[in-house]
From TrEMBL:
The lineage of its organism: Eukaryota, Viridiplantae, Streptophyta, Embryophyta, Tracheophyta. This is Uncharacterized protein. Residues 29-84 form the DUF3475 domain. One of its GO terms (biological process) is positive regulation of growth. It comes from Spirodela intermedia (Intermediate duckweed). It comes from the Eukaryota.
Length: 472
């Protein structure tokens, strides 16, 4: 499987920039916000790689996702696409905000241009955007280096601030105790550490986004946004008709096409392969340069068209009313399953405190259901079977449920962690998709599975430890 590559070519200037403004405007403190946006784009680029799309398709076929969420791959692909577009929208909004200080026409006004492209109304020919896979990889590698060096700069500046604050406190205490006219004999080693850290900060500033030109960095990110939008359209266009149409030309060339011309696309195929090309998640390789060429006159989309282009995304990302996401229980149930998975590794060592902790993690309804089911099993237990054999049977039941339920629970916790710590961490690694989590899981099915898991685990502990019936 291969996905058509979309790259960036710097051979053609996208617009005439205003070079009369003297010195370039360095990012400075905006480097950290820019690095977060850049890491989001790199992460999205990696998520659209061949390997990650293959992994995503495997996740959709997993037992947990298919049983609890949906076995309709079209629905799941729409959710995945909507989440990627949502990430891209957030990055585009950041670029538009950062571009407010740019004097040049591009990328100032990028938000409007991006909305036009998404609505199938934009014209990319005026930008001279040349897309080539080899160029894209070079640009992404550069972005990864910028993100890494800017992250290192952040922590270096944090360490420097702590050293300087500690030195000031030490100097204040010394002056109060010995007087300002006496020199602290221990201040030289600390001062040397501060000087070394200052040198490191200066070096990292030169390597990171701190000293880079705001306009050039925004230009780089804006190009990548359009590149990623084209790739998303090519990968998911077969199941998400609301995406801007992408047409395959001769020699593997791809271009955006306005919706008003989409139905006449077969007239523009010199190779005879008429129709709009949508690759879907599994496609043949594209050869040669991939260009975004002229797609018609520039007509801005109306607010109604823009709203229509956004409504499908909102609907796709909205968990159904009978799901754990809608009831706000996804993360809570995920932690219950993860905790049970940890306890199940050594059930003979599970004590009363661990069981009480597990008990208070459960909603009232789950507790009642578990107790009722336990009482039913206790009545059927006539004591004839040996405890060892019973423990083995229940242990196999626990392992069988955890085999498919634990992965989706772990992905749920990771999905929340990745978004909760977004402001503190600059990670360009591919992230867990919402379709892999319990957010869209059927509430009734999930609760039945958790009850069965708790009952089986309870009997494992009972027969392993020889305890009485009063566990829940």
């Amino acid at each position: 499987m291969r996905i058509p590559g979309f790259g960036l070519s710097g051979r053609v200037p996208i617009l005439q920039h205003d070079n009369s403004g003297g010195k370039p405007h360095q990012l400075g403190i905006l480097a950290f916000e820019t690095a977060r946006t850049m890491s989001r784009l790199v992460s999205l680029h990696l998520a659209l790689s061949d390997a990650e799309i293959t992994r995503l398709c495997c996740s959709m076929r997993s037992q947990g996702v298919a049983y609890l969420n949906s076995d309709n791959h079209g629905v799941l692909l729409r959710v995945a696409c909507a989440e990627m577009i949502d990430e891209l929208d957030a990055a585009a909004a950041d670029i538009a905000r950062l571009s407010g200080g740019c004097r040049a026409a591009w990328p100032h006004g990028f938000q409007r241009f991006y909305a036009d492209i998404k609505a199938g109304m934009g014209d990319t020919s005026c930008l001279g955007l040349g897309f080539q896979a080899s160029d894209l990889e070079k640009k992404v590698k550069k972005m990864e280096r910028y993100v890494a060096s800017t992250s290192a700069l952040y922590f270096a500046m944090k360490d420097l601030a702590e050293l300087e604050a500690g030195e000031r406190q030490r100097a204040e205490k010394w002056n109060k105790w010995a007087g300002a006219d006496k020199v602290d004999p221990n201040s030289d080693p600390i001062r040397e550490l501060i000087n070394l850290q200052q040198d490191r900060v200066r070096r990292l500033r030169e390597q990171s986004l701190w000293t880079r030109d705001l306009r050039k960095v925004n230009d780089l990110m804006a190009r990548l946004v359009i590149s990623l939008l084209a790739r998303i359209s090519a990968v998911f266009g077969a199941v998400v008709k609301e995406l801007p149409p992408v047409t395959m030309r001769r020699h593997g060339r791809v271009e955006f096409q306005p919706r008003r011309q989409a139905r006449f696309a077969h007239h523009h195929h010199p190779n005879g392969a008429g129709g709009i090309f949508f690759s879907g998640p599994l496609v043949k390789p594209a050869h040669g340069n991939i260009l975004i060429r002229k797609s018609g006159s520039l007509i801005h989309c109306t607010s109604k068209q823009a709203a229509g282009a956004e409504s499908w995304k909102t609907q796709a990302l909205e968990p159904p009313h009978n799901s754990l996401g809608a009831s706000g229980l996804a993360l809570r149930y995920a932690r219950v399953v993860i905790f049970l998975e940890h306890l199940a590794k050594s059930p003979e060592l599970v004590g009363k405190e661990a069981r009480e902790e597990l008990y208070w993690m459960l909603p009232v309804g789950i507790r009642s259901a578990v107790r009722r089911k336990l009482q039913g099993h206790w009545k059927l237990d006539d004591g004839r079977n040996p405890p060892g054999a019973l423990a083995t049977g229940w242990k196999e039941a626990v392992e069988g449920i955890l085999e498919w339920l634990a992965p989706i629970a772990r992905d749920t916790e990771r999905w929340h962690e990745e978004r909760s710590f977004e402001q503190q961490q600059l990670s360009a690694a591919p992230r867990v998709m919402m379709l892999q989590t319990l957010m869209f899981s059927d509430k009734e099915k999930t609760e039945v599975a958790i009850v069965e898991l708790l009952v089986a685990f309870s009997f494992v502990c009972r027969y392993k430890q020889g305890e009485d019936e009063d566990e829940y």
